[in-house]
Structure formats: C-alpha cells, structure tokens
Predict the structure.
Amino acid sequence: MIGKNMIRIFTSLVAIFSIAPLLAQATTGEVPKLVVTITVDQLRGDYLEMFRHTFGNKGFNRLLSSGLVYRNVRYNYPNPDRASSITTLFTGAYPSYHGITGEKRYQPETGQEISSFTDDRYLGNFTTEKLSPRPIKVSTLTDELKIASGGQSDVFAFAPYASQALASGGHAASGAYWIEDSSGKWATTTFYTNKQPAVDQQNRSAESLTFTIGSMTWRPAREIESYNAFPYTQNRYRFQHYFGNDKKDSYHLFKQSPFVNMEVNNMAIKVLESSQLGKRMNPDFLAITFYAGNFDKALDKNYSVEIQDTYYRLDQEIGRLLDAIDLSVGLKHTLVCLVSTGYFNEQEIIPEGMVPAGGDFHPDRSQALLNMYLMALYGREQWIRKYYDRHIYFDRKLVEDRKIDFADLQEKAAAFLVQSAGIQQVVTSYQMMQATHNEHTLFLRNGYYPGISGDLMLELQPGWRVVNPESELQVRERSNAVIAPVIFFGCDIRPEKINRTIEATEIAPSISYRLRIRAPNAASGKILEELY
C-alpha cells in the first residue's frame, strides 16, 4: 500500500506539472538583450498623423505599423515640463514622490532660482554646472536594472539637456551626457565615476559641435510645397536659420532645431557600437532624448513650416537609429519604447484687432496686493518671499517668530487671491498634506513636494497669459491635453493599436516586467496588460 506521505508527494508533483504549462504560457519570450527608450520632448500624436505623408518607411511608419501603439499617455499633475515628465517616466511615480517638480526650482534659503538637479557636492566635466541625479528622491528604472544585474548591465543616457540625461540615466548610470549650453561639448558630472572614451574622443575632435556650429544653416529638407499639413498657413516660406558663433544664443537655438536630434543620435550610435551594448549576458540600457517642439525664431509660431521639417528630420533620425540597433544587436533582441513628454510649448499669434478671451495675469502685481492685505492683518512686514512658477513662498521664519498660525495665514491668503481676475483656484500646502482629496485636488497633489513646492499653488483660468518680465516665453493657459503617443516595438512585441489613455506611471513598471526586474521603488502604476 502507498503511504499517506507518498500520496502527498505524488499529489504535489501532479499539481506542479499541471501549473508549469500555464506559467509557460503566461510568460513572454526572451528577456531583451538591450532596452532603448526614445523620449521625444513635446512630441504630438496629432502632428504624427498630419505629417505622416512626408515620412519614409524606416522611422515612425515602421514603429506605427509594427509596434504596440498607445494613442495617448497622461501625466496626471499640473504643468509637466522636460525635467518632471522624464523623471516621472523613469521612476513610475509623480513629483509628489520623486521630488522633481520642474526644470528649475526656487530655493527659499538663498532666494535663488536653481536647477532641480543642482548638487554642490559634485563638479562637472566639460561644464561649470554642479549637478547630479541625487535630487531624485526614489529609484529609477535604470537603477533597478543595475541592482538586478549586480552592476553588470551598462546604462547610457544622451540628451540635449542635463535634466533629461540625469533623469533617464538615474543614480547608477555608466554615463549620462548632455550638450553644454556655452560650448556645445558633451558634458556630465563627476557623480558618475566611469569615463566613456567615445564621448571624450568626440569632445576633442574637429567634429565637435564647438567647431562646426558656425557653419550650420537650417533650411527645409524637402520642397516646402510638401509641408502642407496646416490648411490655414498663409505664408509658406523657404526659411533659413543660422546658429552662428554667439555662445550666449547659438546652442540655445541649436537645441530647438532638428539638428540637435542628429547630434544626440550620432553620439548614441557611437556608444552603442563601441561599448558592445546588448552583446553580453546581462541586458543593457540606452536612453535617448530627442526634441520635437517649436523653434523660437520661427516667423509663424502657429502653423510653421519649421515644425513639419522638424518631424520629417526626426523621422529620418529614428530610422537611422533603428537600423543601427538592428545591425548591432538585432531588433528582435531589443525592446524599443518611444514616448512623448505629454506637453507642448506654443505661443499663439493673436490676429490684429482681436480681443481674446481671458487676459494677462501679472504675478508681481498679485504678489504686491497680497502682501498689502497681509500687512493689514498681521503688521507691516514683507510676508512674501517670492512668486515662482505659479507658487507663492512665504517668509516662514517671520511667521514663526510672530507666532502666527501658519495654516490660518495660508487660508486667508488663498481666499484673498482666488478673488483676483484670472485665478481659478488656490490650494495651500496645508491642504496638500491632508488625507482627503477630491479628484482635482489629487491632480494638484501629484505635483506637490514638501520643501520644494511653494506654500500656495495657483491654478489659472484657461485663456489667461502669465506676464513675467524675467521670461521671454509668454504662453496662454490651456486645459485641453496634448495627444501624446507611446509605442513599444521589437522584442516579442505584437503589433496592436490601443485607443485608451494610459498613465505615465505605468511605463516604468511595464518595462521592468519585460526585463524581469523589480519596478522602481515608488512605482505604483500597474503593468500594461498588452505587455504581459
């Protein structure tokens, strides 16, 4: 007779062998040898469709026809920009967790505006800026890959701006590089101890942007008659933009042109090939950031020929990158993720004689009126330190010294400000920290980080323009979202079009799942069901 223990063992074995095929079915194919993220700053899904007739077959069209295409990704917090959006993508969390609320932040202790990645503990290579990824408060997707591989995976990031490179490279990158604003060199921070020979070689070569920018001219790459996507364009012109040798402005303009994508792509492909990415036991990671926004000097900022040329040239660069990946590693062994940053900076040209809805919001005037009101309540002092990017910072030490109830002061200030023309809502930092939120307050809360964000957060009404003498960019408030696509392509990805809107916080955990690693430690988004 068979004993009870033998029966239990036999039953367990049957259960194991019964479950094994189901597990095999649920598991996707091989872990990719290489992950390539292509983050495109200000990429618009509607423009992709409108300009598609000018594209070839190797770039966007290859991704759109053979990839898993999500029509739209949502960044569920106020005013995403190039720093906060990319940090959100790579952490799988919102600024309320990762701490990067914008490209720059106001530092109350010094009264200065600084980069959100400022870190005086580290020097720069080929830059005087002192930056590091340490201000990111949580782990990133690339951090988790480094941890999972015991440091054996290589992670490289290349971008036009430091914030983009540091956010996508993370805390443990083999190298994170950006184009320095005053020299055009590929810069990095001493936070990263490894040096990449291909980058140093490029910086010292005659091909460096430092030596070539003076001879560059941006002209249409196609006949302008083919740039006919906008039916309201009245003046279709053959533009030409010189970048010149003015160190103050040249590289700023260069980064707003499609030529910056070629520069980023050249460097990324060199490192892809020279570092043998995707050819070792552990998967490697290449993070690339491109640009698809407006050019400041465009003659017609509403419907410019320049933006169509930018997309045409970007399509070529994406095709060139995909070909290089296929030749070096093989697209079937590479997971490619192309994603938009979900916002678009556009300055409207109001026709002469038209009086638009809304008006001009002058922060300096609102600040002065609010301070006068607080003087009447609490005494003749300067209660406000700064208005900065829709946030108001109070002099907390003064409030504390006068033993004033800070929550009460905030509430009174908010009630006063919300009566001002152009202000839709004012939320206090005290309210941000409360446990109960409605859906809209939670949206605002996602963009708030204690100690970095202000004491009051202002929401402007649509149609109102912030008039800031310190900034050339005067953009009218708009509540409608930009259509921002996400495309997965390559390693075991089935082509499919998905019309639902996904969350930006779902991308990092989904890539983590494909890599068979932990999601970043603050990522709470679910894995995209199509990637199971």
